[in-house]
Amino acid sequence: MCGLGELACQREHGALGALNLLARAGLPVLEGVVVTCRAHREFLAGSGLGRYLLLKASSGEPPGGEPPRGFASAPLGDALQAAVCDALAALGARSVAVLSEYGGRAGLRTIPAVLDALRRIWLSPEGLKLQLEALSAGAKPPTWPVLLQRELRPELSGWAAVTPRSRRPDLYGVRTTRPPSGGDPGLNELLLGARDVLGEPVRLRWCLTGGEWRILDVLPAGKETHDPRDL
Fold first, then answer.
1. Which residue from 40, 19, 43, 5 is spatially nearest to 144, judged by alpha carbons?
2. Predicted confidence (pLDDT) at residue 230 exceeds the cutoff of 60
3. What are phi and psi of 164, to 5 degrees?
4. How far apart are CA 16 and CA 52, in angstroms?
5. pLDDT tens-place string over residues 11-22
């Protein structure tokens, strides 16, 4: 487990990797705790899922993405459960979201619910299919980090599309009773700064909370939102 901004990854882990990169650059990203790839590897080993996938890949069957039976309640391990409990206590939130490049859940208020969401992400059909494909090719199965993030009730939130030529990001999906008039210099500066760090056209989810602008999420331009908080 580590704080967002401490993870040693770049863009290879999707939105979480992008948020981590922005945090490392000093931009105001909503704080969170990352369950690392190492924890995922330990889950593969401790639950027996890694051996199951290896045997399935060795059988020559076409890679399938359905979660294997019997693993929906696989143990996460005492050390990981204790670390998750400590992380939730550190976040100090009544409600948290569990997010990854392979799905997530929001509105979680209990430790068992968070642990179940973490397990479901590691058993996602898309992720399992990629792991089986890697094992079938003689490579190591990929693992992925998961973000635990406190949920907010922001004063203002929305999305923005930014490109290398943007001078004023295009805001949409704004949720507030008092939308900004003509944009806000602080928000524009934040969004364009994030664009410059990432070096590509992106869609950014932003919010205003406690008088401060923050980045909540990052998506490649044109990709649909994966954030369960938008559902």
1. 40
2. no
3. -55, -25
4. 28
5. 677 788 889 899
Nearest CA-CA partner of 5 in 24, 31, 19: 24
- Per-residue model confidence as pLDDT tens digits over 130-168: 999 999 999 999 999 999 998 888 888 899 988 877 778
Question: Parallel, antiparallel, or unpaired: how do β-strands 2-3 and 96-100 relate?
Answer: unpaired
pLDDT in tens, 50-97: 999 998 888 876 666 566 777 888 888 888 889 888 888 888 888 999
Render the chain in DSSP notation, one character per residue.
Answer: -EETT-----STTHHHHHHHHHHHTT--BPPEEEE-HHHHHHHHHHHSHHHHHHHHHHTTPPP--SPPTT-TT----HHHHHHHHHHHHHHT-SSEEEEETTEEEEEE-SHHHHHHHHHHHHT-HHHHHHHHHHHHTTSPPP---EEEEE----SEEEEEEE-TT-SS-EEEEEE-SS--SS--HHHHHHHHHHHHHHTS-EEEEEEEETTEEEEEEEEETTPPP--GGG-
* Spatial CA neighbour of 76 closest among 52, 40, 111, 51: 40
